[in-house]
Design goal:
Blueprint: H1 2-16, H2 19-36, H3 51-58, H4 62-76
Helix pairs in contact: 2-4, 3-4
């Protein structure tokens, strides 16, 4: 049931959100899962998933994933 809800939310995200928002949501989802499993204890974590795989999961190109991640990183800079 939980996996069904996650799948539905991911599909909804792909059709209703901009690419940058989808990438941010995906990164936060991975972070939350790692945190829940006790795999991290800070705001920094290893991300062993390639941009190509992220793009395939989110329905965008790996180049666009890279641009989105760069934009998100720049938003975080003071």
């Amino acid at each position: 049931m939980v996996n069904d809800n996650i799948a539905i939310e991911r599909l909804r995200s792909c059709t209703h959100h901009k690419a940058e928002e989808r990438v941010a949501h995906f990164l936060l989802e991975v972070y939350a899962r790692y945190k829940f499993k006790g795999m991290i204890d800070s705001n920094v974590f290893a991300f062993p998933i390639t941009q190509e795989v992220v793009g395939e999961l989110l329905g965008i190109t790996n180049v666009h994933v890279s641009r989105c991640m760069t934009a998100l990183e720049q938003k975080d800079d003071p």
